[in-house]
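User: Please predict structures.

Assistant: First:
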Amino acid sequence: MTNMNSDGKGNTRFEYKIPSKALLGIRNILLTNTKGTSVINTMFDKYEPLTPPLPKIRNGVLIASEPGTALTFGLQNAQGRGITIVEPGTPVYEGMIIGLNSRTDDIEINVAKGKHLTNMRASTSDMSIAITPPLRMSLEQYLDFLEDDELLEVTPKSLRLRKKFLSKLDRVRAARG
């Protein structure tokens, strides 16, 4: 940070010297965190030697562990672990990314799992399940979101994230070397 000024009306101006590679994706993060109330302007200063890569700032992801159709019951379990990016009724497959984990590690979750049916009924067993709407991202946001071991599938009807290696066994083998 090179400068910070407040105008007394609730507005603050921050000035930074930042390498261009650190600005990739910052606009979306800044607009999201400030609920669209920020303005960003960039200006070239000078060329400098290449700096080391930036540290990972994104949390881990929620990965579908079984193929099938995402069900409300399974998505409710996933939302207990983080933010989902798929809605009920979405076809999922093993290795597909279905959400953002609240922690730094990746977790596999079966979102195609339905509620077990029994003959016994409790007074609260038939309550409706309420889930929060999935996070919607643009193509640019998906590209900012990607890590080295992930791919983005682009089709005319949808954008889907997936792991490079779909099965858990293949992902473990790739991580070992």
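Second:
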Amino acid sequence: MSFQSLGLSPELLRAVAELNYTTPTPIQRQAIPVILQGSDVMALAQTGTGKTAGFTLPLLQRLAANNNTDKSHRVVRALILTPTRELAAQVGASVRDYSKYLALRSEIIFGGVSINPQITKVRRGTDILIATPGRLLDLINQNVVNLSKVEILVLDEADRMLDMGFIKDVKKILAFIPKQRQNMLFSATLSKDIQALADSLLRTPKLIEVASRNIATELITQVMHPVDRKRKRELLSYMIGFHNWQQVLVFTRTKHGANHLCEQLVEDGLAAAAIHGNKSQGARTRALEDFKTGRIKILVATDIAARGIDIDHLPYVVNFELPNIAEDYVHRIGRTGRAGKTGAAVSLVCIDELQLLRDIEKLIKRSIPKEIIPGYAPDVSIKAEPIMKARKNASGRNNQAPRVAHKSNRGTWQRDNSRA
């Protein structure tokens, strides 16, 4: 099947051809015709499957087909909500690329940067607005953004939106949008909360599911290495050097942990940078650009970055610490194995994280192969310690909670090795 067979306009076909798109991905083949028909959509697709083009291409065509708006007074006709700044920028770049030959204007707004330039741009008028919920509400409250003419609403990475505590903001935004509109909800995982959101938002939606729910793509090779908590950084540095890894995305649970690990890796002589919510947008953008271009080989990130890093061929993802929420494991490793390419996901697991590991394996319905690196076998006499858990404040940002007991304390490597 080709893009021509999906019913896209000559202008969009010209744009995708210039981007060297030849064959639609499964999510694109299924979503584009349905969206072009005007149906609401509930789409379950892993990251890296081409879902951004899957909703932006038909969205652009529908807007262009009814583009009778006075160009001197553009109004927001399509609203795309994303959970993170990086994802908003990524989606915005795609919209600009695809709409190159259409008389449509798009703007991106997100927090972490000065609001004044964004106000100036939005006041000029735009057909498509890509936004994070918090900054959009700020502009709504300042009477800068008028959403009364929105025809199409997209919630991208809806599960992450819920995880980050944005559901209240989203519901506030919905109050400013006409009830008669086309709705699209895209999510990498399906939970009861996502289903409830879909039920409240969508009208007789078409369900599009291109992969098993909550399952990572088979293009990703997964492995876990048991190791003592105090030797994780040593093992990580060894593996990067021994295997000569040139591009590695490393995940930690906390912002402090990301900064500390980054400093240690630099001390080990490895070019690294950290990216998380406390970093300015400029610093995050520079770190990501340096990582993409190879100026640094290691990017240490928290889960907030898991959905906004889009690299055509990222070969390695390392879970320096397993996430507290099992679904985040799927999001993290989904940064590799994208667009039909293979990738590797490596997890460094200490005694404290055995229950987190079991939760992940239960979610993905498979055991992650275990491999002990010679010289780094865990000391079975070490007892598990409580894991620092994150909690969300009212704004959806993660704060550090007190250390709490975790049921993973019940496990031991000695007992767990009996099933290896």
